[in-house]
């Protein structure tokens, strides 16, 4: 196919032209052989790929990019899970799906950490409340322990402590002696109106006890040198005992 051009050239140049033509022929054959398989673009590295024709969609790097995008899209769709039916509208969603009051109460109940302790010679269930600085005790629980006389009411001109979740403090009680396993602690508490949490331990007392909350083993670790492990109590059982 290159004879006409080769014969017209001188002897030395003729050999060079033949050699160049032979190299080009070999390259074309190798290139054609590399892309015989329809998925050959997936078997080749991105660097050094040769172009196939003039269309951008048929270039090896375009083929790889398109297939990678399709794979990523399928993974993302799979991670999102099944879609909700289109007929379901936001107005028909359950209040728990919208983060309403019901979901907040349920979430709070599920996250309660309750431990058993003793106070004034009686069994007491204490809620570990890291969201409050102070220990809280309800007026009903204070009566059950026989410590109502120790209640120190707030004075009329005294600024009342602001508590979360709309809880109103009636006064304070000091000198509460708690026994948590082998660990004893004397602390004070704010007296609040009757609530679902008869008694709760706040951050101040938890820090003084060097408390560690171990969610994996479901217990509290108190103290440093002489450590005591206080197991969690089921929330339902704790509520039943306090009633």
Automatic annotation (TrEMBL):
GO molecular function: aspartic-type endopeptidase activity
GO terms under biological process: proteolysis
Descriptive protein name: NRIP3 protein
Domain of life (superkingdom): Eukaryota
Domain Aspartic peptidase DDI1-type: 112-214
Region (Disordered): 71-104
Gene3D superfamilies named in the record: Acid Proteases
Transmembrane spans: none
PANTHER family, A to Z: ASPARTYL PROTEASE DDI-RELATED (PTHR12917), NUCLEAR RECEPTOR-INTERACTING PROTEIN 3 (PTHR12917:SF16)
InterPro entries: Peptidase_aspartic_DDI1-type, Peptidase_aspartic_dom_sf
């Amino acid at each position: 196919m290159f004879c006409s051009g080769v014969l017209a050239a001188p002897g030395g140049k003729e050999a060079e032209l033949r050699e160049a033509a032979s190299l080009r022929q070999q390259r074309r054959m190798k290139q054609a052989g590399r892309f015989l398989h329809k998925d050959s673009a997936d078997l080749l590295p991105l660097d050094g790929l040769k172009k196939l024709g003039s269309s951008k969609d048929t270039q090896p790097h375009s083929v790889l990019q398109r297939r990678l995008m399709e794979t990523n899209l399928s993974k993302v769709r799979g991670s999102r899970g099944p879609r909700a039916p289109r007929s379901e509208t936001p107005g028909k969603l359950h209040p728990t799906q919208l983060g309403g009051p019901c979901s907040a109460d349920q979430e709070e109940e599920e996250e309660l950490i309750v431990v058993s302790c003793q106070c004034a010679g009686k069994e007491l269930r204490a809620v570990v409340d890291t969201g409050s600085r102070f220990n809280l005790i309800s007026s009903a629980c204070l009566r059950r322990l026989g410590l109502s006389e120790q209640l120190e009411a707030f004075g009329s001109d005294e600024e009342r402590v602001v508590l979360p979740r709309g809880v109103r403090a009636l006064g304070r009680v000091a000198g509460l002696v708690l026994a948590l396993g082998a660990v004893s602690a004397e602390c004070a508490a704010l007296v609040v109106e009757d609530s679902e949490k008869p008694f709760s331990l706040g951050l101040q007392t938890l820090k003084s006890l060097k408390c560690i909350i171990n969610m994996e083993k479901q217990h509290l670790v108190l103290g440093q040198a002489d450590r005591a492990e206080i197991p969690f109590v089921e929330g339902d059982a704790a509520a039943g005992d306090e009633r």
